[in-house]
Amino acid sequence: MPNLSRAGVAVALCGFLCGCSSPQTSTSDPKVYQMGEPVKTGPLVYTVLDTEWFDQLGDSASPRLPHDHFLAVRFSVTNTGSVTSGIPPLTVVSSQRVTYAELSEANALPEWIGYIRSVKPAETVHGRVLFDVPPGDYRLRVTDDVEPENQSSATIHMPLELVRP
Fold first, then answer.
1. How many domains does the chain have?
2. pLDDT digits (tens, 9 = 90+) for 28-61
3. CATH number for the domain including 76?
4. DSSP characters over 3-55
5. What is the pLDDT of residue 59?
């Protein structure tokens, strides 16, 4: 009988411990960071500094017009790794879960960081990227530069903030 009571205690203890465990966090709902927070993806640490909306870019004689509106995102990227890392193209996701790719050409945007870019070890680069999107709240999706199956990513919430004169 002593073995039976030990087994019963073990089963009861296991049931108690399982009932007290905290719920598992789903990997399909990763943490959403806020603007200004450093966000690490692999060796890259992104920080979104601000956003700005434009109705057009360039001079008034020959402006570049968006399909919707231009959203410029100012950010910095620090490479904490030991080798030079590419900074992959960025995407934004709307509150309706529509994804928009970064524009590959934005010469008229002040501080444009370029489309093909890299960051050396222990270096930080600053600049802006450009999207053509309807006004709204967005999440910027940032990634590291490894192959897609091993890629690390995160999202940064960028609330709609229209500045009125």
1. 1
2. 446 899 999 999 999 999 999 999 999 999 888 8
3. 2.60.40.1240
4. HHHHHHHHHHHHHHHHHTSPPPPPTTSPPEEETTS-EEETTEEEEEEEEEEES
5. 84
| Other residues' Cβ atoms within 10 Å of the Cβ of residue 39 | 21
The structure tokens listed for 48 are 């979104």
The answer to whether position 45 is within a domain reads: yes
Instruction: Tell me the β-bridge partners of 117.
Output: none
In 3D, which of 31, 146, 123, 129 has the Cα closest to residue 77? 123
What are the tens digits of pLDDT across the range 96-115?
999 999 999 998 999 999 99
Q: Has residue 20 got a pLDDT over 60?
A: no
DSSP three-state, residue 66: coil
Range of the domain at 67: 32-158
| Long-range contact pairs involving 143-151 (C-beta distance under 8 Å, separation at least 24) | 143/41, 143/42, 143/88, 144/41, 144/42, 144/43, 144/44, 144/85, 144/88, 145/42, 145/44, 145/85, 145/86, 145/87, 145/88, 146/42, 151/41, 151/42
Whether 117 maps to a domain, the answer reads yes
Task: Work out the pLDDT band at 16, boundaries 50, 70, 90.
Answer: very low
User: Could you tell me if residue 9 is inside a domain?
Assistant: no
With respect to residue 11, please indicate whether it lies within any of the assigned structural domains. no
